[in-house]
């Protein structure tokens, strides 16, 4: 056999196989999405999202203590208000007694080393379930939408969030949030992570069950990106870099690895996040339950594909499992 034919000599040992990756998954790369609800004692199973729960503020310590001991470094909080009065502009989003702001304060107190990001959107808090403020004809009105979203982001920063992450996909919101953070004195105290390329995906179903955030009419296709829109995703990424995003995100991850790869070239000097969303997570579980593959093998394979594509930060519901799996 020719010398040039032989590759296997280079990866015949487990250690030399690990050297074939340009980057390895580490605990620092994992951000765990957590649902916080307004019943302080809640520990509610979410049927469509395996092993995940809606947590009340009084249950957070019992839930997180073991994960912190295993090396959990960061979380992203999603508010799930079940009792509040929703209105047109999402007033309860930054209620100082609401679940998100209460959770930020508590977690800052309990875990000084835990990095706390907050999803910023209005849909969980608006009466119509859309991510912005609407005109009477039901279309998004951009200016009041971004003004309100920036206000919420600043209030999360004031409560102690290390990072605010707008998922609303309104035009101009990154600039508005960055301005609000700077003017409010948080420009150098809070990171802005943009859901830059967020696609109108079929993979958000379990999340909507978890967060109760399905729109009451219509859909989100006028602000989330069409799945085939690579050019639009590139423009959104470049725009958000220009508007002051500190971290860029692609969401969902697995069907959009090409976008992640493209984003890593478009924004090579920014951390690049991707969100392994609820439906992707449920899909990996469903396949494992059906005997198609082993859960751990496929969890690693999906996340490693994201890292290979260029992601440096991964939001995943598999975080608790990875904290165990990366131990050995
Ligand atoms: Zn939303």
UniProtKB/TrEMBL annotation:
Protein known as: Delta-aminolevulinic acid dehydratase
Gene3D superfamilies, sorted: Aldolase class I
Cofactor(s) in the UniProt record: Zn(2+)
Residues reported in the UniProt entry to bind Zn(2+): 121, 123, 131
Catalytic activity line of the entry: 2 5-aminolevulinate = porphobilinogen + 2 H2O + H(+)
Xref: Pfam families: ALAD
Binding site for 5-aminolevulinate 1: 208, 220
Any single GO BP term: protoporphyrinogen IX biosynthetic process
Signal peptide start-end: none
PANTHER family the UniProt entry points to: DELTA-AMINOLEVULINIC ACID DEHYDRATASE
Keyword Thylakoid attached: no
Family: Belongs to the ALAD family.
EC number: 4.2.1.24
InterPro entries per the UniProt record, alphabetical: ALAD, ALAD_AS, Aldolase_TIM
Pathway listed: Porphyrin-containing compound metabolism; protoporphyrin-IX biosynthesis; coproporphyrinogen-III from 5-aminolevulinate: step 1/4
Quaternary structure (record): Homooctamer.
Superkingdom, natural source: Eukaryota
Binding site for 5-aminolevulinate 2: 278, 317
Active-site feature positions: 198 (schiff-base intermediate with substrate), 251 (schiff-base intermediate with substrate)
